[in-house]
Write a structure and sequence with these properties.
single chain, alpha+beta, four-stranded mixed β-sheet
Length: 457
């Protein structure tokens, strides 16, 4: 053993627990969550299929193969399909969220595992296990050093996504413990994703999920063929956390201690609005304010109490968040989102067109929205919303939203998930017959080998 290195690395402990899981042995609640994730991800891929960023992503792939790019006739390699589907699933920022992270698990892991399984043909129960494992690893990694990756300027979904996808694909393809350690070690050198997209609403956040999915597929396949990665990929002096969180000190028990016994993914949240997660409770507050019969013109000022950890992404520079540069930037601008929710009674996919973000009434109200930092805000363990509206007549009204709707405290039902899928599919141009056929396919997806071919048009 090299001096100074642990006898048993964190990745080795994790890998042993992964390989101990038996296909078909997941708890019912975890199975249901994985099924919901698949339904949600497929719908999101369809809703984004005609968007410019997906056209670019698909055109930029030169690796045709047998795997399905959901919503497209063209087929790709497993890595290519994972990239395109992951990018589409995350593209509208309408995908699931782990509230402790925050990270988006389904948009990374589901495309990676399904593409790898469509190519390499393990039984569907292995695919189901892989989705559960990959999402669980991704979410638990975000708990090791909470908030530090975002603070360092990186996108946690991108960083931890590569690791989760590698673990999920490795589990689905039946890699042994040593191979999974190598897959994680390899994926550590593939992880990346800066958050500079915030400056002008560039597209790069959208590809972070797809790139992580692709990286996980490649890392697992390399490991399966004997390629060696560092076993101290997590806690090492030059490991993942030192590189992306600027520390090797973390709660590694949050990753490994009860892995396979308690499933944190059972609490994954599905968003009610297609925008940044932490903005969603503020939209709820705005809608309740409007339901009181108050008009935008009645409001002099709105001040929101916010978590310090969200300010650099959702509130500053304030002028840009009040008047976002483009539709994508608007997804991460709480003043705009709050105002749109107030004026239009909600925030849907249509709130991010170039004409929508120039709505004079919305922008006039957004210009009145400011923030103060609440040092007691529970973020990232809980996402809350607050506004205090001062009216022209001097009256003051406050609204609070104590949790994220769609999350652990108010989860979506299976029918809610299906209804969301249907709306997303319709937005992407599918008719009811196509949507119904897709739902029927997904209902039996894990009963045999994975074949997504019917979703490729």
């Amino acid at each position: 053993m090299t001096s100074g290195l642990p006898e048993t690395a964190v990745a080795e402990t994790l890998a042993r627990k992964i390989v101990a899981l038996k296909p078909g042995g997941l708890p019912a609640a975890t199975v249901r969550k994985c099924e919901d994730l698949v339904i949600d991800v497929v719908g999101l891929c369809v809703t984004a299929r005609n968007e410019d960023y997906i056209k670019s992503a698909l055109a930029g792939c030169d690796d045709d193969g047998p795997c399905t790019a959901i919503g497209h006739a063209r087929t790709l390699t497993a890595s290519g399909a994972a990239f395109v589907n992951g990018t589409a699933a995350h593209g509208e920022d309408f995908d699931d969220t782990f509230e402790g992270g925050p990270v988006h698990a389904g948009a990374v892991v589901v495309p990676a595992v399904l593409a790898a399984c469509e190519r390499h043909h393990p039984h569907g129960l292995r695919a189901l296990t892989g989705i559960a494992v990959g999402c669980e690893v991704l979410c638990r990694l975000s708990l090791v050093v909470p908030k530090a990756v975002h603070k360092a300027g990186f996108h946690p979904t991108a960083i931890f996504g590569a690791m989760g996808a590698a673990a999920g694909v490795g589990a689905a393809l039946g890699l042994d413990a040593r191979q999974i350690v190598n897959a994680l070690g390899i994926a550590g050198s593939m992880a990346g994703g800066i958050i500079e997209y915030l400056a002008e609403g560039a597209w790069t956040k959208r590809l972070h999920a797809g790139w992580a999915a692709q990286s996980g597929v490649r890392a697992a396949l390399l490991a399966g063929q004997g390629f060696v990665g560092p076993r101290t990929v997590f806690e090492g002096v030059h490991g993942l956390f030192n590189g992306f969180a600027h520390t090797t000190q973390g709660d590694y028990d949050a990753l490994t201690k009860d892995f396979g016994e308690r499933w944190v993914i059972d609490t994954l949240a599905f968003k009610p609005y297609p925008c940044g997660t932490m903005a969603q409770p503020y939209i709820d507050c705005a809608r309740r304010l409007a339901s009181r019969g108050i008009k935008a013109g009645d409001i002099r000022e709105i001040v929101c109490e916010v978590a310090e950890g969200t300010v650099h992404r959702l509130w500053e520079p304030l002028a840009d968040k009040q008047r976002p540069r483009n539709g994508y930037a608007a997804k991460f601008a709480v003043p705009y989102l709050l105002a749109a929710g107030f004026v239009h009674g909600g925030v849907g996919l249509g709130a991010f067109t170039e004409s929508a973000i120039r709505d004079a009434e919305v922008l006039a109200l957004a210009a009145k929205v400011k923030f103060v930092i609440d040092p007691d805000n529970p973020y990232p363990n809980n996402y809350t919303g607050h506004l205090r509206a001062t009216l022209n007549d001097g009256g003051v009204i406050e609204e609070r939203q104590p949790f994220l709707r769609g999350g652990a405290q108010e989860p979506l039902t299976r029918q809610d998930v299906i209804d969301k899928f249907a709306l997303n599919a319709q937005h992407g141009g599918w008719d009811k017959a196509q949507s119904d056929a897709a739902l029927q396919l997904m209902a039996g997806l894990f009963e045999g080998k994975i074949d997504l071919g019917a979703l490729g048009s």
